[in-house]
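User: My collaborator and I are trying to settle a disagreement about how two of our proteins should look. Neither of us wants to argue from intuition anymore, so we agreed to look at predicted structures for both before our next call. Could you fold the first one, then the second, and keep them clearly separated?

Assistant: That sounds like a sensible way to settle it. I'll keep them separate. The first protein:
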Amino acid sequence: MRTMTRNDLMLLLGFAAVVLAMPIWLQPFGAAYPDLLQRFMIFGIFAVGFNILFGLTGYLSFGHAAFFGVGSYAAVWSFKLLSLDAIPAMIFAIVISGVFALIIGYLSLRRSGIYFSILTLAFAQMSYNLAYSVLTPITNGETGLQLTINDPRYLDRVFGDAMPGQPVPTLLGQSLGGFTGFYFCAAFLILTFFIAQRITGSPFGMMLKGIKSNQTRMNYTGVNTRPYTLAAFVISGMYAGLAGALMAVTDPLAGAERMQWTASGEVVLMTILGGAGTLVGPVLGAWIIKYFENIFSALNDSILARFWSFLPDGLDHTAVVVSGKFVGEGWFLTLGLVFVLIVVFLPGGVMEGVRRITTLVSPKSKPPASPESTSPQPQPAE
């Protein structure tokens, strides 16, 4: 395996430091409570996995929520049948979602472009409808699959670890609520980021980049690209399944709504907003969207009135009325405006803005030497 470069190691360490310190630096933004931090981690994993297929390979899927939902269902069934410990649930969810992605990918990758996208959307909607109605004995339909006291949990009972009272997921007997759950999810985000980093810099990742650049040319050179695209699809589906399992750990309920097409569209927005094809961009996009969803949607007129209280009488009321259209139930309007501005002025997402700022701040590099000064001068013949 290729050793990590200094830049890769610094990126990984910096990313890990930012993630682990989120309860501190997010405090001024009102986003340092455990439930939201866990969602930051979970959807960051979801977006990193989707970026392997879309940003790295160039295949746009509109059906990745199906794997997210399958991972949730698999994890809850693991809690019900095997053990309340989270590790078996993680493994079970990753395997099941990987097999499901293998089947869907094998069929969908027979086409490319918009036809591939429509196929994945169709399979996702089929999965949603199956979970909602046809497979009710397995999914519990619209009510959702949840833990009960009467669940068998055979492994727990064999080892005498059956927990009295309302069952909750654990890790080696330790409850995963609050900040413990956040750091559990954060560890998986850092691990999946590291794996994505290694994939991007590996020969396999170079092949995926070549497929995105010009798949037809690669086929003409004799390279069979389908195994690579299928592998990328399966890996991406396993990432989504892991994210779904972590969602079931933090909220032990699996419902069909996690498989809707809107959830698939959300991860597409996350990746584009942050910067498709980059490592950090999709994670930033996931954090931005989840921040808007949970913070801006919670703002109401009373909070806005306190915020604008420094304005003169009459003007403060106008400011509350105008700003109220962009928060609360209107938070989608704010997110839409942000997305439009990003697409128009920063087509490469937030990471393009970061690169532009870095270019402006960093000292200008020396101009490259001219070919005449570097090429050897011809010597006269003796």
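The second protein, kept apart from the first:
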Amino acid sequence: MTIPREAVEIDDAALIERSLDEPEIFATLFDRHAPLLHRYVTRRLGPGEAEDIVADTFLTAFQHRGAYDRSRGDARPWLYGIASNLIGRRRRAETSLYRAYVRSGVHPAELSGSPVEDGVNTLAVNRPLALALLELSPADRDVLLLVAWAELSYQEVADALAIPPGTVASRLNRARLQIRRSLSREGE
């Protein structure tokens, strides 16, 4: 299957609209966003869970593409919102991963021989940081990691999680304060 060149050059909203009549066009959305989404989910849940979450994210997106708000040209917040909901269903896996970081200081991707995502060793595997992330509420952790790791704006996080931008700001502020406190305790 060859995706037409013009499909690669249009924004996500137009692509999703077009995929209603030409479902194979939706693959372009996958090609655009799956690598970064996979990186984000790998950081949150490890490589074993990432494949499933990314696949389920795009399956859900495909199934619900008719309801996509076409006034939003960028589908990233929508996709990260779906992924965040799926991650939320696997909170135990995320908690276990952070506990493993704290115990061993080794990312599971390093053990499996898989390539470790950029930044995982410097950020996610940092034991004090992993412990601090573990102490955050799931809602605060979602906001913090969508900003820090997915590099979404406050408005994009608000769209992804279906919360007001002010709630994003307060959750992010709370998460940052708690992370700072946790890290300063660790440094004592």
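Some points you might bring to the call about the second protein. The chain has twelve helices and no strands. The longest helix spans residues 165-187.
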